[in-house]
Amino acid sequence: MAAKLMNAIQYSRYGGGTTALKRVKIAVPDPKADEVLLKVEAVSLNAFDWKIQKGIPRPILPGKFPYVPGTDVAGEVVKVGSSATKFKAGDKVLALLSHATGGALAEYTVAKENMTVAKPPEVSVAEGAGLPLAALTAHTAVTHANIKLDGSGETKNVLITAASGGVGHYVVQIAKLGNTHVTATCGARNLEFVKGLGADEVLDYKTPEGASLRSPSGKKYEYVIHCAMDIPWATFALNLSETGKVIDLTPGLGTMIRFATQKLTFSKKPLVPLILSPKTENFEYVVNLAKEGKLKTVIDSKYPWSKAEDAWSRIISGHAMGKVIIEF
Ligand SMILES: NC(=O)c1ccc[n+]([C@@H]2O[C@H](COP(=O)([O-])OP(=O)(O)OC[C@H]3O[C@@H](n4cnc5c(N)ncnc54)[C@H](OP(=O)(O)O)[C@@H]3O)[C@@H](O)[C@H]2O)c1
């Protein structure tokens, strides 16, 4: 019997940006034993989606061409794999797909059951779609910074760079659940937005004061959660406490070399690369924060499926304030 076809967007080579995205009809995937088949209702894009297309993590990603990009999905379960027991057809869920397979920019997609979480009714489809990669990364970074999310422990001074972005806006909110004093960087037009998320001090990264990363109240940072790029180590070093650490969310070769060198020299002020290794319980935790109203998804822009290419251009711009969402 001929496979049922669906609409999808894919690309077949590295590079090309928005113009390389092609609208295609491909077979609806069949869930493997440990997967669920979802009818996609909304997708959020992440900076890493365009980086995969650009070939930055080549040859590791994507797993193969042609590739349907996108990893963050809100949708409805339509079929479950033979060993999947947590969900049934009709359940509303959120899912994080693997970067190797992608698959979000399509009418239907398959997700591993252990990377699928029930969507609470209190969280809208668009807000829920914003959560998977960005909120999980934010949660992982904050817990790497030893911030206790019940608010206990001594006050920690934390710097968060690019606090207006998809990841950064969740980092600020999660960090403020702990006992923290947060200094955050963003562009001038987002200063009030980032203060509204709970940051105690906000720096415009395009001013000399902002570029220096100096806390206006003179604090030295115990942790930096670095969601931006291209800030020289010397700038961080001047602002760190005696044992301050920088957690780098975009570790390139330079970070890896510094990390290795600092390990060998027992540096007290390390640069720590962070690559998300997602865990089900953390996914459930951030979704529960959203359910309780403690973690809000701020939506930069929403696009209908017919304008998904515009959403791709927006994420490539690097100027999103919060999350870029595509709705079906
Ligand atoms: N390690 C991991 O597992 C992992 C997981 C997810 C994401 N990431 C990485 O984390 C980084 C952030 O991701 P994202 O989704 O938040 O990106 P994003 O949404 O595209 O970030 C855009 C925002 O960052 C701001 N920004 C850019 N450069 C800045 C700077 N130097 N200082 C302050 N603000 C700056 C922009 O403000 P303006 O518009 O004012 O310029 C914009 O609001 C990306 O490099 C991404 O690849 C890593």
Task: Describe the model.
The structure is a single chain. The chain has 10 helices and 15 strands. Helix 4 (168-175) links the parallel strand 8 and strand 9 (180-186). Helix 3 (132-144) crosses helix 4 (168-175). With 328 residues, it is α/β, with parallel strands linked by helices. The two termini are 27 Å apart. Residues 16-326 form the Enoyl reductase (ER) domain. This is Quinone-oxidoreductase homolog, chloroplastic-like. InterPro entries: ADH-like_N (IPR013154), Chloroplast_QOR (IPR052733), ER (IPR020843), GroES-like_sf (IPR011032), NAD(P)-bd_dom_sf (IPR036291).
* Alpha-carbon distance between the two ends: 27 Å
CATH architecture of the largest domain: Alpha-Beta Complex
Helix content: 25-40%
SSE class: alpha/beta
The total count of strands amounts to 15
Number of domains: 2
CATH superfamily of the largest domain: Medium-chain alcohol dehydrogenases, catalytic domain
Shape: globular
Mean pLDDT: 97
Largest pleated sheet? 7 strands, mixed
The portion of residues forming beta strands comes to 25-35%
Low-confidence runs = none
CATH class of the largest domain: Alpha Beta
Number of helices: 10
Taken in chain order, the helices and strands follow as: EEEHEEEEHHEHEHEHEHEHEHEHE
| Fold-level CATH name of the largest domain | Quinone Oxidoreductase, Chain A, domain 1
**Which ligands does the model contain, each kind named once?**
NADP nicotinamide-adenine-dinucleotide phosphate
Supply Rg: 20 Å
